[in-house]
């Protein structure tokens, strides 16, 4: 028999005596025993309204292995004390935690528990450190609180909503020395290639043409002339790279193989290439063999600088639920949008016959290919005149 049932039984007996004796005190005492269980249920339902969780972290964007100091605060806005309050929440199992009262591994999750003693209208806080070791987004939306019930029964966890997220960037892999394909200075040779435009130097305006970007429209000149005018920028000789990432399905039933580790190496290699482009002030364009927003392939427009590097790394960190597509179709698309002389770096764990044929066609058109093989533990740099032989091709095509 539970404590609530005992209260109901005792209250019934007291009310029964009050009915025969007519004592007002017994009526009040019996009603009190019936009132207490109802008050306990009402208080349990209202408790999340009086308890507030506050979560503060010193960093919200980190690299794997970076400690994050967190301040957890619990505010009691009611007039009743809450001794022995237990707050718990879960994190992925790759996260290491320190300074918690209890840390339990269960169902591939790390459960952290903290004990608080909250006086009325007071707050309490705890400091602890978490260290994520994998890329992704650590997102928490609620914690579970348990407190001592009024009747001493088994306490039920109550959800406490709050919002917290940490973005963990992918760890760049150590890549072999890359050939930057340094060319002759502009003007020392004849070329039909139009150099890249540098948006930091304006050289004039022209009339708007369909397909121009809205952010390049010169609104003041458009207002003066009565027609839309597009900005013209000075040319620059900075290289422009296209980073192509080959993402495999998470599981291939025919081969009975999981590709999670292979995909992580590919993503880390793309992150290392982004760091390389950022360090050398190269313009980079990202293409991935995954579907996104109804498109067959993901594409991040070419850009340079810190903002573009952060945008690229952010997308790589959030790349989890994806639908892989064909690498050959992506290379076929590059055949129509790329110009001779462009540098294409392909990060792939394996190549099929169609992909090899497309690379040979692109190389014959003058595109420069460098393949980074991530099938092994350490990425290997393969020049295309050697890659074709490695993947079973007898005919060698030079990248030059």
Description:
The chain contains eight helices and 20 strands. The protein has helices at 3-21, 24-50, 219-225, 260-279, 306-318, 327-337, 353-364, 384-390, and strands at residues 51-57, 61-62, 68-76, 82-92, 96-98, 102-106, 109-118, 123-131, 136-146, 158-168, 196-207, 229-236, 240-245, 251-252, 257-258, 283-288, 298-303, 343-348, 368-373, 380-383. It is an alpha+beta fold and 400 residues long. The strands form five sheets. Strands 2-10-9-4-7-6 form a six-stranded mixed sheet. Keywords: Membrane, Transmembrane, Transmembrane helix. The chain crosses the membrane at residues 12-36. Residues 205-374 form the DUF58 domain.
> Average pLDDT, to the nearest integer?
80
Topology pattern, helix = H, strand = E: HHEEEEEEEEEEEHEEEEHEEHHEHEEH
Report the top-level CATH class of the largest domain. Alpha Beta
**Spatial separation of the terminal alpha carbons:** 86 Å
CATH fold group of the largest domain: Rossmann fold
Profile the largest sheet. 6 strands, mixed
Name the CATH architecture of the largest domain: 3-Layer(aba) Sandwich
Percent of residues in β-strands = 25-35%
Class from secondary-structure proportions: alpha+beta
Give the full name of the CATH homologous superfamily of the largest domain. von Willebrand factor, type A domain
How many DSSP H or I helices? 8
Radius of gyration: 32 Å
Protein name: DUF58 domain-containing protein
Pfam families: DUF58
Keywords: Membrane, Transmembrane, Transmembrane helix
Domain DUF58: 205-374
């Amino acid at each position: 028999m539970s404590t609530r049932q005992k209260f109901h039984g005792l209250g019934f007996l007291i009310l029964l005596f009050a009915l025969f004796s007519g004592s007002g005190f017994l009526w009040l005492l019996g009603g009190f025993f019936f009132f207490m269980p109802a008050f306990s249920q009402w208080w349990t339902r209202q408790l999340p309204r009086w308890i507030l969780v506050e979560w503060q972290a010193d960093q919200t964007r980190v690299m794997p292995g970076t400690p994050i100091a967190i301040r957890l605060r619990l505010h009691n806005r009611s007039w009743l004390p809450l001794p022995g309050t237990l707050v718990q929440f879960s994190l992925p199992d790759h996260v290491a935690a320190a300074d918690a009262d209890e840390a339990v591994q269960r169902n591939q999750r790390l459960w952290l528990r903290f004990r608080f003693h909250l006086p009325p209208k007071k707050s309490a806080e705890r400091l602890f450190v978490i260290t994520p070791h994998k890329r992704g987004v650590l997102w928490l939306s609620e914690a579970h609180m348990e407190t001592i019930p009024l009747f001493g029964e088994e306490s039920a966890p109550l959800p406490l909503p709050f919002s917290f997220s940490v973005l963990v960037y992918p760890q760049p892999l150590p890549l072999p020395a890359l050939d930057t394909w340094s060319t002759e200075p502009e003007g020392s040779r004849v070329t039909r290639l139009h150099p890249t435009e540098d948006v930091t130097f304006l050289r004039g305006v022209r009339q708007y043409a369909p397909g121009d970007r809205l952010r390049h429209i010169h609104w003041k000149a458009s207002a003066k002339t009565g027609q839309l005018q597009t900005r013209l920028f000075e040319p620059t000789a900075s290289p422009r790279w296209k980073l192509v990432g080959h993402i495999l399905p998470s599981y291939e039933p025919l081969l009975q193989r999981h590709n999670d580790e292979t995909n992580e190496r590919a993503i880390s290699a793309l992150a290392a290439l982004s760091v390389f482009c950022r360090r050398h002030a190269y313009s980079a364009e990202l293409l991935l063999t995954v579907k996104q927003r109804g498109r067959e392939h993901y594409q991040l427009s070419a850009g340079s600088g810190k903002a573009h590097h952060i945008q690229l790394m952010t997308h790589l960190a959030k790349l989890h639920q994806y639908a892989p597509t064909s690498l050959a179709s992506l290379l076929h698309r590059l055949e129509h949008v790329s110009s001779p002389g462009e540098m294409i770096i392909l990060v792939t764990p394996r190549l099929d016959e169609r992909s090899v044929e497309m690379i040979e066609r692109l190389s014959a058109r003058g595109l420069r290919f460098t393949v980074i093989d991530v099938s092994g533990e350490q990425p290997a740099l393969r020049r295309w005149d050697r890659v074709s032989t490695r993947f079973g091709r007898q005919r060698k095509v030079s990248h030059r």
